[in-house]
Amino acid sequence: MAQPPILSWEGLGLQQGGRWLFGGPDVAPIDLHVLPGDRLALIGRNGAGKTTLLKLIDDRIEADRGQRRIKPGTRIVFLEQEPDFSPFATLMDFAQAGDDAPERHEVEAIAGQLGIDMTTEAATASGGEKRRAAIARALAQDPDLLLLDEPTNHLDLGAIDWLEDWLSRYKGAFITISHDRTFLKRLTRATLWLDRGTLRRKEVGFGGYDAWEESVYAEEARAAEKLDAKLKLEAHWLERGVTARRKRNQGRLEKLYQMRAARAAMISDSGTAKLKLANDEEFKSKSVIVAEGISKSYDGRAIIKPFTLRIQNGDRIGIVGANGAGKTTLLKMLTGELEPDSGTITHARTLSGVMIDQQRKLLEPDATVRQILAEGGDWIDVRGVRKHVQAYLKDFLFDPKLVDTKVGILSGGERSRLLLAREFARTANLLVLDEPTNDLDLETLDLLQEVIADFEGTVLIVSHDRDFLDKTVTITLGLDGSGKVDIVAGGYADWEAKRRAPVAAKAKATRTEPAAAPTPPPPASTKLSYKDQRDYELLPARIEELEAAIAKGEAILADPDLYTSDPQRFASISKGVENARSEKDAAEERWLAIAEQVEG
């Protein structure tokens, strides 16, 4: 028997800035029901009202229409995108503020797992420290319904993995807004799509969202053909702007894979930074940044151990690693902002760069969009090509009518998109992006992927967005915190595969022993328990089974028509693949831990 909702909004309507954001006269009011255990992705363009909807659910703002119902005793916790730390002396003071504050020991337990010192002064804390402190406060409150607004912003890869693991075991319901496709695919089971003032729900996780969105727009386009030309034009723009972009990006991905294959052929088998090419002179002539034996240390600690890299014109370089591993240091050395302790950095004489960093300068709120882009005029020079400012706005998914809108009225994501539009217009052959995906909606990420792919110069990207890196970069520089820089042809997934290779190699070595020589029992001195002994012997075979199951599932999901023809099977297989991945990861870690004990 289906359980009743823990929270409902019925007939929801809200006006904002003199217009109806939800449930206006031209669209149906919103109905929303949150069930126990729901894992919901909340999707929509910047400015569609996603954060506002979470605030309505949390009863932080009043609606103009509708009725909110909540099951008695339901505890709702809202993890805001940018909570205010200014009134507090320390991160712990922030975590324990208010009548609903969690117990100190509960906060400390979660903070310890996230690696955050809650005695840190709030005024000097980094964005990552503040985000982890906010997460510790939210999770320690043991909510029945968790509202997450961009929870992975400012988190490093280790913290994201930890949060994903915690949420996978969480028994309550959650609704999350996130630009992190990998995060959404791994955790969500249903999708809420906020689009032009309406809210749709589909009982499929984010993995099926793209197919669902395209099918809705295609149906609208067919319906619009029977109506007037204005509606037909609008439907055509929607379908072209979403579906066509994704189709173009598929073609760009094929090109990206070819570029990765070419780069892989230049990287030595040892995985070091030494690159090789049949025609070395031709390779050198195309190099725009040459790092020879560069290193950097602080207070006796090696941040970057000596390594060599030649970056060619057209390369897309991704830099990944935990916070504090040295990503920014490496980026500054490659761009010439920071001198290495040893080695040399040489730049091509024609190199001219544009930097877009995660601490983006605030745009003047009273300035108009036209002033930001075209200094108040009608035309903008886009990398040497003259273009009308309204046409350029459409390229970045803005309504051209917003050209005289003040920046202060735009949402945070829209301001980020406006800044990207301004910076991408500049003439340059080196583009440096530090956490470019923060605050961007999914359609803008598709656009950013497209713009980067079409950029004729070289791109350096620091990011924790795994899906974005997989679709964008040709080489990944992976930092594990020891100072070593791994150089891998491909994206984040390729670097992650290399990191896991020692585990897989050990497991494979165990699996491939001939029948006459099975996995040897551990020495008696290790004193393994019966369960440890069984896991040590049986897990390699189980890992192999899971790898086969994952490969089979992914092959089935690759069918582009599966979601439309059989959405239930799509959802079932997606969930099975995700479960198999989680089990395989856990099995590999478990086997390696026992193997290290045996070897010790």
Mean pLDDT: 83
CATH H-level name of the largest domain... which superfamily?
P-loop containing nucleotide triphosphate hydrolases
Helix content: 40-55%
Beta-strand content estimate: 15-25%
Question: What is the CATH architecture assignment of the largest domain?
Answer: 3-Layer(aba) Sandwich
Q: How far is it from the N-terminal to the C-terminal residue, by CA?
A: 53 Å
Low-confidence spans: 235-240, 269-280, 513-519
Please give the domain count. Answer: 3
Q: How many helical stretches?
A: 19
- The class by helix and strand makeup works out as alpha/beta
Largest sheet, in brief, is:
6 strands, mixed
> What is the level 1 CATH name of the largest domain?
Alpha Beta
Question: Strand order, biggest sheet?
Answer: 6-7-8-4-9-10
Number of DSSP strand runs: 21
From the alpha carbons, calculate the radius of gyration and give it in angstroms: 26 Å
Assign the CATH topology of the largest domain.
Rossmann fold
Overall spatial form: globular
Key features?
single chain; 600 residues; six-stranded mixed β-sheet; Rossmann fold; alpha/beta; 43% helix; 19 helices
